[in-house]
Amino acid sequence: MSYQKWSEKLKSDRKNLQHHDLEVLALEVLDTTKGEIIESRINNLAKTVGKPLQIISDHGSDIKKGIELYISQNPGIIYTYDFTHQVALWLKKDLSKNQKFLEFVRQCNLTISQIKQTKLSFLRPASQRSKARYHNLDILVNWGLNVIQYWKKQDFSLISTELIIDRETLFLLREELDQSSLGKLAKILGTKALTQTSFCQLIKEKIGRKLYRKKGLIISQAAELGRRKFLEKLGWLLDYEKQLHIYAEILEIFALAKKQLNKQGLHQKSQQDWLNLTDNFCDSSLLQKTQQKVSQYLAVEGQKVPKNQVFLATSDIIESIFGKYKIFADSSTCSEINEMILTLLLSTTKLTPDKVLQGMETIHINEVNAWSKEVFGQSMLSKRKLAFSTPTNYTKVA
C-alpha cells in the first residue's frame, strides 16, 4: 500500500482498510522460504517499485530473517511487529500452560463432536484451528458467555418442550418432596407432556394445588428434557463463568488497543494516547498488566515512526485477503496451491463492468492454462487420476 493512499485513508471518515485499498506488487510460488530467499525477493521488488517505508510482519522465523537481512543493507526502513500477532503471542504465553484454560479448550472440542448432530447443535462452539487458536480466542470466549447467558434465561424449549415423570425426575426430587408426594408422582411414572401448561395441570391433579404452589416450579425443572440435555452436554461450562469473564476483560483491553491503532494508526504519541484512554479503565492488577503490555509495545514500535508521521500497526487486512483466498482454495478437490491463487489479485481489485470486460478481452484462457502449467506443473487431481486409473477389464469391488 502506498503511503499516499494510507495518508488519504487517515483523513477520510472510513479509516478501516478495505481489500481494494491494497495492491499486489508481486506474486510468486516458492518451494522454500529461507531468509536469504525472502531478502532477494524484497530486493527484486524494490528495484521495480522502490524501497519500502515500512514493513509489517508476524516475526515468522524465515520472514523475520529475510526482512532483517534486507534492512541491514537498507537502514532507515521502519520494521513493525504486527500488533495482532503480538497479542496472540502474549495470550499463548499466558494460557498455553494454564490447565484451566487447556481443559476448557479440550471440553469445547469434545462438545463439538458430541452435539453436532443433535438438538443441541445450535449451541455448539466454533471449531478452532490449532495454529490460530490464540488469534480467535474471542470467538470461543464469547461463545461460552453466550451459552451461560442462555442457561440463565432458564428456557430450554429450543432444545425440547417435552416434560416427563420418570425415575430420574423422582431422583432429582428426592430431597424436595416427602415420600407421600413422591409416591403420587410414581403412580404416573412414564407420563409425558408436550407443553408446560399440560404438565402443570397434570401435576396439580396429582399433588394438589397447595403443594404445587410451593414445589411446582422445582418439579417442572426436574422433568424438563431440554434442561437435562443441556446439563448433560453443556453443564460443564457453568464452572468456567468466572474464568471466562476474566478472559473477556483481557480481550476487551486488546480490542480497545486495536481500535485505537485502526483509527489513529501508529505514531510517536500512540503510547500517551493509550494511557489517557485507559487511565480509569483498568481497575484490577490483571487488567493493569495487560494495559502495560500494550503500553510497552506502543512505546517500542511508536518510537520507530518519524515525528509527525503515522504508520500502520497491523497486517490484519492481508490476513483477511488470505482468508478469502482459502475459501476459494478449499473448493479444490485436492488441497494444493494452484491457479486459484490468482483470486488474491481479484480480492484487491475494485471490479467494475469495464474492468471485467477489459479482462475478458485481453486475457485468454489458453494463456492462463499455460501459466498455470509452467508455475504449478501437473495438478494433484490429475496425478491422482493417473495413479488410480485401472485397465478396462479390471473389476472393482461393488
Summarize the structure.
The protein has 398 residues and is mostly helical. The chain has helices spanning 3-11, 35-49, 61-73, 83-95, 99-115, 137-153, 167-172, 179-186, 196-207, 209-223, 225-234, 241-264, 270-277, 285-302, 316-329, 343-347, 353-362, 365-376, 380-387; strands at residues 54-57, 78-81, 163-164, 192-193.
Task: Please characterize this protein's 3D structure.
The chain is mostly helical and 398 residues long. It has a domain at 163-223. The protein has 19 helices and 4 strands. The strands form 2 sheets. A two-stranded parallel ribbon has the order 1-2. Helix 3 (61-73) links the parallel strand 1 (54-57) and strand 2 (78-81). Helix 2 (35-49) packs across helix 3 (61-73), helix 6 crosses helix 12 (241-264) and helix 12 packs parallel to helix 14 (285-302). The longest helix has 24 residues, at 241-264. The chain is extended and about 90 Å long. The two termini are 57 Å apart. The relative contact order is 0.10. The model has no long low-confidence stretch (mean pLDDT 88).
